[in-house]
Amino acid sequence: MSLPQQTTILIVGAGPCGMATALSLNHQGIHDIVIVDALLAGENSSRALVIQAATLEALNDIGCLDDLLSIGDKPDTLDIHHGSSRLISIDFSLLAPHTKFPFTLVIPQTNTEAVMLGKLDQLGIKVFRPFKVVSVKPSESVEEGMFEVRFASGEMIKTKYVVGADGAHSAVRNEAGVSFKDPDGDEKQDYGNLSQLVLGDVTFTSPPQIPTKTLGTFSHGNFSLFAQFPDKASPDPTCTVYRVVSSVPVEDGTAPQAPSAEYLQALLDRYGPPALSSDPAVNAHPTRIDRLYWSSRYRTRSAIVDRYFTLNPNGGGAILLLGDAAHIHSPVGGQGMSLGIRDAISLGPVLKAHIDSRDSTSSSKHFEEWGAIRRRYAITVIAMTKEALGMMTASRRVWAPLLMVGFSVLRFLGRFRFMKQMVAYRISGLADI
């Protein structure tokens, strides 16, 4: 497909955030939209697995939820273990007074994208691929108040608004000259054993003896996560597939970019829950990874833009940033994609208000208010994920008896409804709405 020469809104990035932006704009009655992506369909290797309650609320508001709910699983509890003992069970059902969706939705990102793409197709909104942005400049014609966006293919499109939803290495953000740093000035990004995580979608030689579909475990400064894929969204419909995540100890050096089954199993044997161990001395029902469908490595980093928008100096439109182009943080807690989708959906009415505004002197207030709110929420999520990292790596820094006392207190408090509800509320993102 060849690009049109001009559009009102150009969305760069066709992941969940970019497509959610388009759906939100369409819901506001804005239809002059072009979406581009640098990758061919199916090449995106980012694999988020969870959508939180606040994001389900937002997706429901734009009519893009029913199909997702029909595919994914809806667990309402998440067990967190310290070693082999349960530390706290997070009960999302306690969110019922605050949301219509008192659970987390477990659904692979590939399915989320497929549902969104199907919605866009129904609306006649196409994704143009592969188009890699190389420059974003104000149009030389001041009267137009447009941006000229050029691509590696040599093509160019004029647009009033550019939405950067193109990930952590955002070309749009770089072209806008927007700073992207750790909000606490921690540019060393040293999170100990949690500085690297490896992920894999796997089957096991025998079903793991774990009574829950999701389980997080940390011990000795390391972390692992186990989650079962929904039956309707499994990479292999002939068997049960699981997502496993493990931190990589500092002494192990740099993890492979695509870890093997053997590499993942060795980490699970050392730091995973006993039920995933292949060692009969540890696990009464030993099991091991049988098949590997996909794997990847993630380097833990926190960063946020200093501003979410840049106005066209010639007047008119703006460059706007959201999702990973605006903020990144540890994947612990499953917050990244959910927060980005809420960025995207919240932008729809803001862009609508700016387009409809006839007062050019005050129209930037729409973006200022939106950017300030979204940045505040992102800072909160970054702080929350850093707190979780700090708790999980505490054994490397805190005197062992004192650490055990702290965990005993947390385990005691975790029995109470108010504690379970507070933790679930923080993770759900409902404070954003």
UniProtKB/TrEMBL annotation:
<feature type="transmembrane region" description="Helical">
    <location>
        <begin position="398"/>
        <end position="414"/>
    </location>
</feature>
<dbReference type="GO" id="GO:0071949">
    <property type="term" value="F:FAD binding"/>
</dbReference>
<keyword id="KW-0274">FAD</keyword>
<protein>
    <submittedName>
        <fullName>FAD-binding-3 domain-containing protein</fullName>
    </submittedName>
</protein>
<dbReference type="GO" id="GO:0016491">
    <property type="term" value="F:oxidoreductase activity"/>
</dbReference>
<keyword id="KW-0285">Flavoprotein</keyword>
<dbReference type="InterPro" id="IPR036188">
    <property type="entry name" value="FAD/NAD-bd_sf"/>
</dbReference>
<keyword id="KW-0472">Membrane</keyword>
<keyword id="KW-0560">Oxidoreductase</keyword>
<dbReference type="Pfam" id="PF01494">
    <property type="entry name" value="FAD_binding_3"/>
</dbReference>
<feature type="domain" description="FAD-binding">
    <location>
        <begin position="7"/>
        <end position="356"/>
    </location>
</feature>
<dbReference type="InterPro" id="IPR002938">
    <property type="entry name" value="FAD-bd"/>
</dbReference>
<keyword id="KW-0812">Transmembrane</keyword>
<dbReference type="InterPro" id="IPR050631">
    <property type="entry name" value="PheA/TfdB_FAD_monoxygenase"/>
</dbReference>
<keyword id="KW-1133">Transmembrane helix</keyword>
